[in-house]
């Protein structure tokens, strides 16, 4: 599996699955959420989200991608930063892992993420990146070949480069090579969405990802008493 970083507008990006940072009620938010809702077709996407209604923090749900150059939008419900002692670390990691598992179940070969929770949700950028990196590198799937982290601005690009990653900058002046995902095999897309829905209904699957998210948080958090306290709080909350 290839993990790469691209500087681009994720709403214009071509991938089998595009991840949208969502709230629990799957309503349009600001920033990246607004850009994706607008590009996908606000009316159709809002209706699809309303039909689902709710998704827990740390989990994710898929919808069709409508007018995006993708097959699916995966709505990953990310936590808001409070104080680090409300399972923020594990919930963010499990949001990544749930999105990756859903994409794999739906036979996606590529999935594009923004840097989840690093904007209005208040996570420190360095911490959000560490959780993204660890979560993605921890994932083992059958179908996904390419995971792309799509960043938007120069500051984020400089930060990612400081972490030892190359960043491909998409030239906005050149025409996009459109994949035509949205026009391909609607019957198969709907069958894959049903397979994802069935997987989500099994509570054991989500519980497993939450537990893995907590293990990842142990690696990301600094050593010492605070890390142990945070993990203990999270484990009690997930019993």
Summary, kept brief:
With 239 residues, this protein is an alpha/beta fold.
How much beta, percentage-wise?
Answer: 15-25%
- Give the C-level CATH assignment: Alpha Beta
Structural class computed from helices and strand pairing: alpha/beta
Question: Spans of 5+ residues with little confidence (pLDDT < 50)?
Answer: none
Mean pLDDT: 87
**Gyration radius, in Å:** 17 Å
Number of strands: 7
Oligomer: single chain
Determine the CATH topology.
Answer: Leucine Aminopeptidase, subunit E, domain 1
| Count of DSSP-assigned helices | 8
Q: CATH superfamily assignment?
A: Leucine Aminopeptidase, subunit E, domain 1
Helix percent reads 40-55%
| CATH architecture level-2 label | 3-Layer(aba) Sandwich
Total domain count: 1
Verbal overview:
The protein is α/β, with parallel strands linked by helices. The chain has a single domain (2-172, 183-237), classed as Leucine Aminopeptidase, subunit E, domain 1, CATH 3.40.220. Helices cover 45% and strands 15% of the residues. The protein has eight helices and seven strands, in the order ββααββαβαβαβααα. It has a seven-stranded mixed sheet, sandwiched between helices. Strand 5 (110-113), helix 4 (125-138) and strand 6 form a beta-alpha-beta unit. It is globular, with a radius of gyration of 17 Å. The two termini are 32 Å apart. The model has no long low-confidence stretch (mean pLDDT 87).
Name the descriptors.
239 residues; seven-stranded mixed sheet; alpha/beta; 45% helix; 7 strands; Leucine Aminopeptidase, subunit E, domain 1; single chain
